[in-house]
Amino acid sequence: MRIHEYEMRTGITRTPEFERKRLACFAVNAGLKCDHDCAYCSSAAILRRHPIFKKVGENPFGQGYCIVDPATPDRVARDAARMHDRGLVQLCTLTDAWSPEAQRHNLGRRCLQALLCQPGWSVRILTKNAAVRNDFDLIAQHKDRALVGLSITATSDKQHLISILEPNASSIDDRMATLVTASLAGLRTYAMFCPLLPGIADSLEQIDGMVKFAADCHVEEVFVEPVNARGSGLQLCQEALEQHGYQNEANAIERVRHQDGWSNYVLQLIRNVQQSMRKYLDTSKLRFLLYPSRLLPEHTEQIRTDDAGVIWLGKEQSNHPTQPVSLQQ
Prior knowledge:
Layout: E1 2-5, E2 13-14, H1 16-20, E3 26-28, E4 31-33, H2 43-47, H3 51-56, E5 65-68, H4 72-82, E6 88-91, H5 100-104, H6 107-116, E7 122-127, H7 136-141, E8 146-150, H8 159-165, H9 172-184, E9 188-189, E10 191-193, H10 204-216, E11 222-224, H11 233-243, H12 247-255, H13 259-280, E12 286-290, H14 297-305, E13 310-312, H15 315-319
Parallel strand pairs: 1-5, 3-6, 6-7, 7-8, 8-9, 10-11, 11-12, 12-13
Antiparallel strand pairs: 2-3, 4-5
Helix pairs in contact: 4-6, 10-13, 11-12, 13-14
């Protein structure tokens, strides 16, 4: 792993898009690329024009490197103390504050301390790393102001595939065990199933397993998102699976690289998730994040006949003001 350090300018920033997603009003990021190195990561599509990539000689869509900012907690502490407009912060939106390199600088805990020591701030934690459990002691001191979420992208029987696509993240079993620990400790929890990849985690059986697990953890909300088709993430996933001999799964990824395949996949994913939520929880807790621009018109209409739990994003949300208004790091 090639490690680059880069000092960013921002600490706590407003995030209108994540507010529309009902995730948070503010964001903190501890770098520009984390070393979990997930093949489908969509952050590069957002950050691709950032000058840091040219400066360090890296392809924004490449793998095998990370860009971390060890000074992040200092700026977060500064902003947390001086900002008057306060609310829910997502840690993080583009990178992971508990990735291996972030752990080396203790970025997750230090950012939490900076936020929670000031009144008026609350934190939504999102990570793919079980190391967050080391900070449950701190979270327990502020349990009403912190939400713990482990990104779970499949059930444990698919770990052999997930380890290819998320090479440096904690195992699915470890992530699930960490969320169980949080729940048993009386911490507030939520579920993040993102992305649910075709051929790996989009079947009703897989989703039933994840939603039932979420119910057992007494989650407050369940966030779900289809894989983001922007950038080179899908191609990287397909190639990685092919290299390891998983041709059927690679073919499923290849199909959603085209609009008709992606649209069919999203329609069925929504129906499977809704069915599981109605079986084990309730769609009032569902937050299915949907950018509909690549949906076929007939699929958009079908989804609208039953869009329980769907949060319409992009231009669609402005056209439907009664609707509640990529996480794939």
